[in-house]
Amino acid sequence: MTKKDLQKKPTNPQEKGYTAEQITVLEGLEPVRKRPGMYIGNTASEGFHHLLKEVVDNSIDEAMAGHAKKIDITIHKDNSASVVDDGRGIPVDIHKQTKKSALETVLTVLHAGGKFGGYASGYKVSGGLHGVGAAVVNALSEWVRAEVRRDGKIYTQEYKRGKPTGKVKLVGKVPPKDAWQRGTKISYKPDTEIFTVMEFDISYILDHYRQQAYLTRGVHLIIKDERTRFSYQYYFEGGLVSYIQHINRNKVVKTQPMYVSKTMENVMVETAVQYTDEFSETVMTFANNIHTPEGGSHLTGFRAALTRSLNNYGIKNGYIKDSDKITGEDMREGLTAIVSVKLANPQFEGQTKAKLGNAEVRGIVEDVVGGGLEFWLEEHPADAGKIMEKVLLAAKARLAARAARDAVIRKGVLDGLALPGKLADCSESDPALSELYIVEGDSAGGSAKQGRDRRFQAILPLRGKILNVERARLDKMLGNEQIKNLVIAMGAGIGEQFNIDNLRYQRIIIMTDADVDGAHIRTLLLTFFYRHFPDVINRGFLYIAQPPLFRVQHGKSAEYAFSEKQRDSIIEKYLKETKDKKTAKQEIRTVGIENQESESAVNIRGIGVQRYKGLGEMNPQQLWETTMDPANRVMLRVMVPDAEKASKIFEMLMGDEVAPRKNFIQTHAKSVKNLDI
């Protein structure tokens, strides 16, 4: 293209007016405020708490580098937060490139810090690897105040929505009696212009930083909540061993914990291993204290080392014969393990850092864990024997499960891939457009079949409660008719033959009654998916339908309510039309809803309120309008952001141990309203 061509006026009408003037250039931290979701995920609770995580991560990095021992986190009454550490303190001298202080550079320039091998080169390993943490917090806060104690002096600088209100100030000297003091204090308040949630969730904060304290052995974490005046402290000298004991505290353990820690080729590898009497495995992996839920090279190396070490020990000591067909899956049954690596330049797959990609880490972890595990097995023959017994039992159960699974699949083949007789399938063949409703009971199933859109909605009624799979092996599961029908209907297989790409529906919707039995069935189904089809949850394919609890009718008008609050609001609206709102509120309190929950219908001044206790009480048209019509329905997507916490809940609610479940019921009994028995 010549210069003359470039000077020609555009001939396409859509090109007119599109010149260099329409190109927006965002400077400094403007891109962060313009598109906060790109940096912190969202502007709701997750993103709101992500700011605190970014600030604390910098202090954790100081602790991992051996420069900090104590971190104080304070949640203030105005929902601002402060984080103080006793690390080296952010440098305040002038940065050569930016011509600003290093403190201001770190807080106002993206990808600036001591974690890139450039200026400062302050960290061998770190968690804040994108280098945007401090600057992003500054950009998305109403105000930030930084205080640095270095070389016996105290420096401060303040910012407003990412911009400094002045230069770094020397405000004084550290008192002689506190001359040893050093470190950084960052105080900030999330911006109300950015976030839709402006309140810290202390339970989330406690869970997250308990985990960080386990992973950073010897660090003292103090969390203060000024809103409730509660203070919490975490300090775990045992590190990963303490962590694995915490995870298994409600399980029957078969061995004592095995711990390995070694640095090889500048990669620090730590792992703790313990076996329980569970049927599933729990393996948590971390890279530079960042949870990697999808695993990666460190997980691959760990599994290879475990399989090789146990196999060698079993053959050497006569547990495993040549005829035995032992798999890695057999060796991981009942396993609880934590694998933590710390390295200088981790390569994560994806912005969410869900998977570690460094290929060299696999071999390092395999060597470190393999050597440590082989030594431990020789030194603890009693524990090693228990592990081998469990491995052999798992292998026998796997073969029995395979026979049961093959029988299910073989039956499908002989029947021409026949689907369960109860299943009313849809005509759509594209899984991305297809939905499967798992419905409680034949009555509700009948209404759902009549009310559905046959083109893309399939219905599978369940008769009664399915098997509790928390303590059941695969062969027993597939002997249960309800579970067998569900597995065949989904079409993706189960166990080692599961393939998510063969799933026949990419929206699987649990639809149960809004009562105790319905909640129990829902919990049983969630346990089934969480333990045996985690990919269905991870891919966002599992949902919970939200049928309405009430139908409020006034004359020819009718509305549905999904909560008591919404129901009362509708009643008040209808009664307001009678210009008697005061009387309306009084009648809501005294006439009836709360006092007549046992009744299926209540009448208040000509307004009929029907309470749905079961899906079967709705006719097909009502079920379609309220619960199945994509234009009107409300559904909850099942997500598991914290797998460890979810696993504990399922173990407590569905496992064999009665004491934890009894304690949970006693603790939360008073918070249950309108219990249907």
UniProtKB/TrEMBL annotation:
Mg(2+) 2 binds at D513, D515. It comes from the Bacteria. It is an enzyme of class 5 (isomerase). Mg(2+) 1 binds at E440, D513. Residues 434-548 form the Toprim domain. It is found in: Cytoplasm. SMART domains: HATPase_c, TOP2c. Its EC number is 5.6.2.2. One of its GO terms (molecular function) is metal ion binding. It catalyses: ATP-dependent breakage, passage and rejoining of double-stranded DNA. Heterotetramer, composed of two GyrA and two GyrB chains. In the heterotetramer, GyrA contains the active site tyrosine that forms a transient covalent intermediate with DNA, while GyrB binds cofactors and catalyzes ATP hydrolysis. This is DNA gyrase subunit B. It comes from Candidatus Doudnabacteria bacterium RIFCSPHIGHO2_12_FULL_48_16. The lineage of its organism: Bacteria, Candidatus Doudnaibacteriota.
